[in-house]
Amino acid sequence: DAGITQSPRHKVTETGTPVTLRCHQTENHRYMYWYRQDPGHGLRLIHYSYGVKDTDKGEVSDGYSVSRSKTEDFLLTLESATSSQTSVYFCAISESLGRNTDTQYFGPGTRLTVL
Amino acid sequence: AQSVTQPDIHITVSEGASLELRCNYSYGATPYLFWYVQSPGQGLQLLLKYFSGDTLVQGIKGFEAEFKRSQSSFNLRKPSVHWSDAAEYFCAVANNAGNMLTFGGGTRLMVKP
CA geometry: angle at B68 spanning B62 and B74, to 5°? Predict the structure, then answer.
């Protein structure tokens, strides 16, 4: 298994509070991704990073920000959590970006509940 | 925009029976396609991927998938299902830049003894 950890694994918070989720990898892969998983929607990309301090938006980025100050860590922040952000969040990594070589490996997920 | 449809939300098969999970995609160019499996409470594991070449792709755990361009499909198959195959299965397509996977809604497989 790829060396990807996510913390915390479970979190319950209240509407309006800030929340930060952490993804840590030991594979030294360049690319990192944050997805959210909701029933019936599969996984949807929130943000991704293509290097230290280099990030870009995905399909569902509103209400989320990210930061990557080190190769191994990719943080996802909900500045002011809302109930619609209750979801399971997955981090993924990949070594390359080319479509003919890229495979994304996924972390174990973080279950976030916003009350 | 690219999209993936998995028409079956739930499928139940008996152990030892054959399995086919459907995946239809919409993409303007040659698609790069993936199947992932997610066991309860776990992350996603790659089963197989199609980039080019032979349209029948072999994966791990005895799975295979066939790319049919004329039908815009990439169906997953297994000749004999085991109880441990009970999980949720996701089909995905990569965009041109390779920086975004678009997933289908998933198919939950249940296996009867």
Answer: 45
Show which of residues 71-90 on chain A sit within 8 Å of chain B, judged by CB atoms: 90
Nearest CA to B6 out of B28, B21, B20, B26 is that of: B21
CA–CA separation, B76 and B59 (whole Å): 10
Which letter, b or e, does each residue of B18-52 get, where b requires 16 or more Cβ atoms within 10 Å of its Cβ? ebebbbbbebeeebbbbbbbbeeeebbbbbbbbbe
pLDDT band for B84, please (50, 70, 90 cuts): very high
Give residue B108's pLDDT: 96
Tokens encoding B85? 């195959």
> Parallel, antiparallel, or unpaired: how do β-strands A10-13 and A110-114 relate?
parallel
Cβ neighbours of A108 in B, within 8 Å: 42-43
Residues in chain A: 115
Q: Cα-atom radius of gyration of chain A, to the nearest Å?
A: 13
